[in-house]
Amino acid sequence: MTGLALRARVERRGVDVEFAVGAGEVLAVLGPNGAGKSTALHVIAGTVRPDDGLVRVGQRLLTDTAAAVHVPTHRRRVGLLLQYPLLFPHLRVAANVAFGLRSTGRARAEAVAAAHRWLTEVGADDLAGRMPRQLSGGQAQRVALARALAAEPEVLLLDEPLAGLDVDVAGAMRRLLRQVLTRDGRSAVLVTHDLVDVATLADHVVVIDGGTVAEAGPAATVLSAPRSPFGARFAGVNLVIGSAAEGGVVRAGATAWHGVAAADVVIGAPAVAIFRPAAVAVYRQRPHGSPRNTVEVTVAEVDHSGPAVRVRATEQPGGAPGLAADITAESASELRLAPGDRVFMAVKAQEVALHPAP
């Protein structure tokens, strides 16, 4: 098993990132559109050359700008699976899967045998004689995965491979990916916008925003206690950015957020307050005997599409997402909220977790 290390600066795209993936681990790369996620993947694949950087897989150096090293894409042993399968339309399924091995000089019989073996692994050997136009979206992605794996990559790069698939097909593909990645010990980098992908596939998470790494950590930690605005939006929790003060407090401007401080919070250092929308109550008037955390906000959105009614406030100072509250339909009916209304949001101190900021 081999790990992956990346450091890359691509000036024309405003990207300057660094991260590593352990042997046999899956790293999920999150971030808004245009943040630099796909650029990082293409630097690893060798299709984008960084202005400054290094790519190492195990003991093999694939890119090193200081030493003028750039291994061609076809010799990197890096597999790339995209949102679109991009199968060769003129080749049957088996020939598509065998293509990578044939291009490295493998004998035809050996390549075809390997293609059938991998098609069987992904549950698609019955499709071997079909043309790509005869495949459904889910079938085509299974074939694309078999093609990527048949080339025996040490690292698998997954750029939103499940986007556009229906729920059942995406679920089956997740199970297949987890099985293959866990069994064979390949390192993998997964770019996704889907929380389920992260929860079911990823060991670690990196959040890229504005071309740099905004947050990194174990997947469970980032999902339960994100430290960046995008991480909070992705995980669906409230996040307030400020600095730690004595007494279990994060100060954000003039507002003091009281909560339960983690052991690694340092007084005076950057810190965040995190709490679930379900823990937030909404009032038209400031509540009597109000919780220690009560703030006046402007309503930006009232969303009735979920099991609870989501009330979202306008963006916080500094660009963090507006605070969100999940309230019952009955409460929403009584409050009769609309965008532009001024309301009070309140949350008990024991519901607020305080952590160091990245």
UniProtKB/TrEMBL annotation:
InterPro entries listed in its UniProt record: AAA+_ATPase (IPR003593), ABC_transporter-like_ATP-bd (IPR003439), ABC_transporter-like_CS (IPR017871), Mo/tungstate-bd_C_term_dom (IPR008995), Molybdenum_import_ModC (IPR050334), Mop_domain (IPR004606), P-loop_NTPase (IPR027417), Transp-assoc_OB_typ1 (IPR005116)
Pfam families: ABC_tran, TOBE
An annotated Gene Ontology molecular function: ATP binding
Coiled coil: none
SMART domains associated with the record: AAA
Domain Mop: start-end pairs: 288-356
GO biological process, one term: molybdate ion transport
Keywords associated with the record: ATP-binding, Cell membrane, Membrane, Molybdenum, Nucleotide-binding, Translocase, Transport
UniProt KW Membrane keyword: yes
Sequence ranges assigned to domain ABC transporter in this UniProt record: 6-235
PANTHER family per record: ABC TRANSPORTER I FAMILY MEMBER 10, SULFATE_THIOSULFATE IMPORT ATP-BINDING PROTEIN CYSA
Protein name, per record: Molybdenum import ATP-binding protein ModC
Organism: Mycolicibacterium litorale
